[in-house]
């Protein structure tokens, strides 16, 4: 399916590169295209030029807000550039309040009572989920994101990949008839979907919610293909 891609840029201090990479991985596993400078800039490329290019190509700027990033000239420049370009900015509060341009934007926050392992898990998995939920509820991005996820399901090469993508079904609101039936088509054609128990459960709920706009013959075929 051809669609305008939604791309996420993660802005962070260099000391938090591991955390940024982990969040990127969690977003990627759930079907989102994400850029992190130290992972994605090719050696020999000019750093500042590649950052500007990636900021221009990205729709969403996720900023890891910490004492380090608040003091980072690079992060503040990325934020200022993104504000000037009218990007959708999502601050994620690590251990400090957002400053400057970010001060007026509501940030994703961490529960204070969780332990260090829980904090890391939240920042990677739960943070990715909360970002995805925000974007799928936004009329500017939801259709393109749904189309991207349909593409991911179509090309899924494992049950694990499939599970990450069908997770979003519960957050698909106002899906179109074309999208609903494409989701049936890609499941029918891909054995990594129609042989996956996780997909059976997700599709069963999705079909129940959207049956009025779906092709009954395709529903019947898919239900026959799913594992018992």
Quick recap of the structure?
This protein has two domains: 7-136, Toll/interleukin-1 receptor homology (TIR) domain (Rossmann fold); 143-225, no CATH class.
Fold blueprint:
Elements: E1 7-11, H1 17-29, E2 33-35, H2 37-40, H3 47-57, E3 60-65, H4 67-70, H5 73-84, E4 88-93, H6 116-136, H7 142-155, H8 159-166, H9 177-189, H10 191-194, H11 197-210, H12 216-225
Structure description:
By secondary structure, this protein is an alpha/beta fold. It folds into two domains: 7-136, 3-Layer(aba) Sandwich (Rossmann fold); 143-225, no CATH class. It is built from twelve helices and four strands. It has helices at residues 17-29, 37-40, 47-57, 67-70, 73-84, 116-136, 142-155, 159-166, 177-189, 191-194, 197-210, 216-225; strands at residues 7-11, 33-35, 60-65, 88-93. It has a four-stranded parallel β-sheet with strand order 2-1-3-4, with helices on both faces. Strand 1, helix 1 (17-29) and strand 2 form a beta-alpha-beta unit. Helix 8 (159-166) packs parallel to helix 11 (197-210). It starts with 6 loop residues before the first strand and ends with a helix. 33% of the residues are buried.
As a percent range, the share of helical residues equals 55-70%
Radius of gyration, in angstroms, nearest whole number: 19 Å
CATH architecture of the largest domain: 3-Layer(aba) Sandwich
Biggest beta-sheet profile: 4 strands, parallel
CATH classification, class level of the largest domain? Alpha Beta
Instruction: Give the overall shape.
Output: elongated
Mean pLDDT: 88
The count of strands amounts to 4
State the separation between the terminal residues, measured CA to CA: 30 Å
Strand order of the largest sheet: 2-1-3-4
Structural class from helices and strands?
Answer: alpha/beta
CATH structural fold name of the largest domain = Rossmann fold
DSSP helix count? 12
Uncertain segments are 40-44
